[in-house]
Design brief:
6-stranded mixed β-sheet; 6-stranded parallel β-sheet; single chain; elongated; 364 residues; alpha/beta
Amino acid sequence: MKRKITLKQIAKELDVSVSTVSKALSGSKEISEDTTQKIQAFAKLYNYRPNNIALSLKNRKTKTIGILIPEIVHHFFSTVIRGIERVANRRGYNVIVGLSNESFTKEVINMELLAGGSIDGFILSISKETLLKQDYHHFNATIDQGMPIVMFDRVVSEVDCDKVIVDDMKGAVKAVKKLIENDCKNIALITTMDYVSVGRLRTQGYLQALQENEIEAEPNLILKIDDSLDVENHLEILENEIETFFRMNKNIDGVFAVNELYAVTAMKVARKLGLNIPDDIQVIGFTDGVLSKHATPSLTTVSQHGQKIGEQSANLLIDRLEAEDAEQDSYIVNTDRKKDFIKMVIETEIIERESTKSKIYLEE
């Protein structure tokens, strides 16, 4: 087994300075091509590996991005991570994933741990408990330390940073209008409590679609789920709440749910109550995940394009990091925190499946 060689040893063997070796190994144009090839060949022969920890301490850059998400099992978040990794790897960055489990405390702890030298910047979606508390001090403190943040999906205006979102309101309008076009007269909404920004926007889209089609919104057709309580029995509670809701509103012929889980559970309850999907009741959910494709019947969804959100988030953060490096190199420092922050909106689309009536079916 070849022993590990150092920069100093390479420099001594080849009778050059340590600085020359370092620059040659990093591909610097300051070093002649012949010298670079000789040093790189020697380093390869003796299995030289750079000390990444030492480099990060010297350069104050880790070339690593921290990703902080509320939950790992949600298909949407897994596709976002895939998009982030795809761009990060292509641009020479690694990723570390942290999980808040919808907890404010865990979110703060994760950020403090990662911000202590492990990463260069964050891409994150805010936990439900943080949104409920409306306490964003840890985000602003991280930014004040000089560490950029990109928020996606769940974002807040109180934090100045780049953001990537889908048009939640417009996506909800599309979904509800599809149910109206499919001749649904009594469309129910299954949503989150209003402190969750995406649920609030999707609720607004539901109401807007009804208004634009001159349909009066009925409060009894809106079910708001508080899923911050009793996590262990969440699915059982969700199913019971939706069943009670359906039994109290037997005229429901269409359902728009603000996430995939609510939609699939609504279909399960509908079948339990002897309703045929889509003949008796049609269902559309937000998020085009695994559950949607494999549900019985398969679920019509509003696709959020999670991978694209991840890719755009990674590009925004890396662009920000590299722009800051360029400013430092040229001794130009921009102290304006608002800078040129970008809010990028990703369009949604309807993925039609068996839980809604197709146009061909309607014409027949």
